[in-house]
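Weekly sync, protein design subgroup
Attendees: M.S., D.O., the rotation student, P.L. (late)

Item 1: inverse folding check
M.S. brought a backbone from last month's batch and wanted to see whether the design step gives back something sensible before we order anything. D.O. pointed out we never logged the input encoding, so this time it goes straight into the notes. Structure tokens as presented (405 positions):
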């Protein structure tokens, strides 16, 4: 029986598996999905775990609840892909498995890119996984306690002014005020939340009107904006900038920049300068028509610009990858991938979101509610949708979960 092997169970991989399973309903083909962990994580929500807004299990769904019987899940890390021999090696807790494939889908996502900045990796907190979110939450809660119980001033530094960093800093500001409501003796003036970017504005890739609204909201939340500040070095207790300026730090959060997260690949593949696999208009890897790549690890040019690292890109690409595997197998013409951006919504803490929908700039409470509704619909399985909706509703009226785990 022919098989399709999908490496990576994120937005790209999971939805490719589900789309394939629909298309190949009546045809005998085996679909394998391989991931290092046994659950899907809804990455755009993990910053809410870090500030105690949602519980851990609301952002994750075990693969077994999403995938159907046509898809076999294998837990393990792929450490080698041999494109010439059409074989992969999976390292797992139950041993090594070698798997031959007829079609291969590479959807291994990305990892944090520290751009070789001195001290950045060893002195920063990342935010890519569930473990990262918990580690960050524990540290933030420790710092709030230190601030409450001692005279110490706390500096929380968030590096990068992209959407994730902006959302995270607003959430941290809300966490601080939430803490202040519980502990009246907390002096919030001693807590400095510093958002740092080398550009002259936050959200540099967004419409200037969105940037202005975001900037105003961040300032309203007493977040200090360090713009035009390029980080040169990160130490345990400081950040040094290229212009010689230095700030103190009790925590550095580095979400800025991602690099593709690829296993070793034997074969003649072309990578872009960041290390992403270059794919053609059908999302195939050049010279290997049976191999596809999508999502954060793939480099796809449209109108001479590479597509951004977004869940909505990976999600939309998954349909084309599945269809093109189906078409190849059935000797039909392949479909070109054309990306149409649906819109952007950025939440800035409770009750406020800004964005652009079909070209119109929107902001306010209603769009914050819309932002949540969109995410609710995107999270897989009805069970998780209900749990998340309950968690969010509860958090509007009851205490956050600030247990350290
Ligand atoms: C904090 C944060 C917030 C974000 N917010 C948004 C947002 O609001 N909107 C938006 O559109 N995008 C957002 N993104 C970006 C979005 O999460 C990514 O673009 C999207 O997850 C990419 O999907 P993917 O399938 O390519 O990779 P991923 O979703 O990262 O999935 C890759 C999978 O591959 C697995 N894997 C990796 N290597 C191996 C291996 N060797 N063997 C086996 N398994 C492997 C990983 O475990 C992972 O499950 C955010 C990202 C972050 C970090």
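Designed sequence read out in the meeting:
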């Amino acid at each position: 029986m022919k098989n399709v092997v999908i490496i990576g169970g994120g937005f790209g991989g999971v939805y490719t598996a589900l789309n394939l399973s629909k298309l190949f309903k009546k045809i005998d083909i085996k679909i394998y999905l391989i991931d290092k962990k046994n659950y899907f994580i809804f990455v755009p929500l993990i910053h809410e775990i870090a500030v105690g807004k949602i519980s851990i299990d609301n952002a994750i769904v075990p693969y077994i609840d999403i995938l159907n019987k046509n898809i076999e899940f294998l837990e393990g890390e792929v450490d080698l892909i041999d494109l010439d021999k059409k074989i992969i090696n999976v390292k797992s807790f139950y041993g090594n498995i070698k798997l031959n494939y007829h079609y291969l889908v590479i959807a291994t996502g990305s990892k944090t890119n520290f751009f070789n900045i001195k001290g950045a990796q060893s002195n920063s907190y990342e935010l890519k996984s569930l473990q990262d979110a918990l580690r960050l939450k524990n540290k933030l809660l420790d710092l709030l306690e230190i601030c409450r119980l001692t005279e110490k001033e706390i500096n929380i530094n968030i590096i990068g002014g992209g959407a994730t960093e902006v959302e995270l800093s607003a959430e941290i500001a809300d966490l601080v005020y939430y803490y202040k409501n519980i502990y009246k003796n907390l002096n919030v003036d001693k807590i400095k939340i510093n958002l740092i970017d080398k550009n002259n504005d936050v959200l540099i890739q967004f419409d200037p009107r969105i940037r202005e609204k975001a900037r105003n909201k961040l300032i309203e939340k007493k977040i200090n904006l360090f713009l035009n500040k390029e980080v040169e070095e990160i130490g345990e207790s400081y950040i040094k900038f290229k212009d010689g300026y230095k700030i103190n730090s009790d925590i550095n959060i580095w979400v800025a920049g991602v690099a593709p997260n690829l296993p070793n690949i034997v074969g003649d593949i072309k990578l872009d300068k960041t290390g992403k696999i270059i794919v053609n208009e059908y999302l195939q890897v050049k010279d290997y028509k049976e191999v596809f790549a999508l999502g954060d690890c793939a480099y796809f040019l449209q109108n001479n610009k590479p597509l951004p690292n977004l869940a909505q890109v990976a999600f939309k690409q998954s349909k084309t990858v599945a269809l093109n595997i189906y078409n190849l197998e059935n000797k039909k013409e392949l479909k070109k991938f054309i990306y149409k951006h649906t819109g952007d919504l950025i939440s800035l803490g409770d009750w406020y979101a800004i964005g652009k929908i079909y070209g119109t700039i929107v902001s306010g409470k209603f769009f914050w509610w819309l932002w949540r509704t969109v995410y609710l619909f995107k999270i897989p399985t009805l069970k998780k949708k209900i749990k998340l909706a309950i968690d969010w509703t509860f958090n509007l009226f009851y205490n956050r979960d600030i247990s350290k785990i």
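Discussion: The mean pLDDT is 94. The two ends are 45 Å apart (CA to CA).
Action: P.L. to compare against the previous round before Friday.
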